[in-house]
């Protein structure tokens, strides 16, 4: 082939249009339940018009609305043949246009979009006719930011609502409009109501009861004379709740009771005690069958006509579910009478004004509760969990400080790269790898004043406290970047925290999760949580820090600034090993854990990265050790955690005085000496895999004491040695 023909072929190939992506998720007008006030996870699925042949591909997505075109961002996911799937962390709001593309080496291979996607609030609405489309006047959404889902497709939620019985009006558009206006997010509705149904008809298949409801098409009589539900309504209800991902909606709104109260045939009336029993069963069984503890709101609903305006028995049964914490309080729709009902007040269904008033009553119950969900305490794992959220500017982040404040000097670098074994770095290398910054809060504030704060982004804070502790003895603080999110929720960590009387605290969000300035930001939030929880000692308690990947920019750097407040820290699979080179943290016990197959460990070489801890040991007498987990990559394996918890436990014992009481002020930590610990031979990258690494008390260690891993005591030395030899902490 001639050179000119080859060039022509390349040009022709480059000019070929990209393949098309047909997105099957999210669908047009989908509303995704947000997971924080300003964020939600959007599941992306699609099919390409032709198979992608490139060896290395990535998925990117962006959101566009009338005012903004957000930048493309990488999506975690995969492309296999013609199939595409991934997950995008998206900003709450909408309607957004979602653009998705497949890229390879900077070239766009395929592209597709969905015109309307919302990240907001989703509700399942069930019960009988007044939860469905039986009102006299069809309602329309005024905001046009309300959509409804029938299990297969989404559309704007003008009445009648798909998936519910009836062809008339509902309270849903005015209710959802009120939520959309107050929260400034789209609202999604999954309507399931069936007119004239008794609670007995909603029971799971086979659930029995002594007397039938007025309508019997969904129930059957057994040979014993008992009656049983056929389960059709329940199964459809569960299917509708499962038509979105787990936790894909906020709550169930239940409006039902009229067909159980005061029936003309009194044998069909349901006693309140049984109503309570059956609805509780539906609530509990449905939570089990969908796999999560969805909140339920139960309305007071028993009205028929003037003169039969409610059943005290049914109303008491509904209220008992609130009082016992099984459900939350819905509106009192029995109070809506007169011209708010059909036929000038003579019917059970609502008029147009009644539907709008009914929607407003639901909004009055839901909106205040909704606003509390982000910060209300929750009983979790034998303790209580609190959350808080803040919109913080990017100037707090490690990256912004690196770009705008860090002194561009090579003179202070005394790290691994100046060792003769690996050569002397170029000035540019030294600047890039000088993480020993010595940046004061005054310098940071001056830089912010000159350069501006930058864009704001949400940071989520979570605190967990074990049940029944009188005073917090210490706090495990985790950057949620990488494995920190999962670590915060681990049952074994919470068991250890309960034993040692520790709080667990985590933050997620770019302004903080990789490292932040000023350090007072952490104290401010701990103080605020102390006020909320009735544990003011949180602001004075000593800290144990955890960071994974770039989260080590928090755990190691924060320790170097506040060594007197930190009893120990873990750097897990540092994404940039030179973040760990912190002489200011040298006298705080530290554990740096690598994965043998982690690509970051090999950049620029395993030997160079593994030498960071020995360099700190040699140059600054650091109370640090390193560990390497064989046959694992950048994410920690299950074998890692027992070593982390052993280090946490032994460092706590070594540094926290037995009589420490943070209620009296900042705890003065005990200071171990080099001679009080043990030493261990460092893992060899040349040998690889599991290795028998000798350990001994400091005084009798036979090899180079200046570079060996420093181990807290004999017990931790045994755990560390066992981990390196067998991958097991016994």
Task: Pick out its properties.
seven-stranded mixed β-barrel, alpha/beta, nine-stranded mixed beta sheet, 730 residues, 28% helix
Question: How is this fold's topology laid out?
Answer:
Blueprint (H helix, E strand, L loop, with lengths): L2 H13 L3 E7 L4 E4 L5 E10 L9 E7 L8 E8 L2 E9 L1 E12 L2 E21 L18 E4 L4 E3 L15 H12 L3 E5 L16 E2 L9 E3 L5 E3 L2 H10 L9 E5 L16 H19 L5 E5 L11 H12 L4 E5 L9 H4 L6 H21 L5 E3 L2 E11 L4 H7 L22 H6 L8 H11 L4 E11 L7 E6 L4 H5 L2 H10 L1 E7 L1 H4 L6 H14 L9 E6 L3 H10 L4 E7 L17 E6 L10 H5 L1 H9 L3 E6 L10 H16 L22 E3 L14 E3 L11 E3 L2 H13 L4
Parallel strand pairs: 1-8, 2-8, 8-11, 8-15, 9-11, 15-16, 16-17, 21-22, 21-23, 23-24, 24-25, 25-26
Antiparallel strand pairs: 1-3, 3-6, 4-5, 4-7, 5-6, 7-8, 9-10, 12-14, 13-14, 18-19, 19-20, 20-22, 27-28, 27-29
Helix pairs in contact: 2-7, 4-5, 18-19
Summarize the structure.
By secondary structure, this protein is α/β, with parallel strands linked by helices.
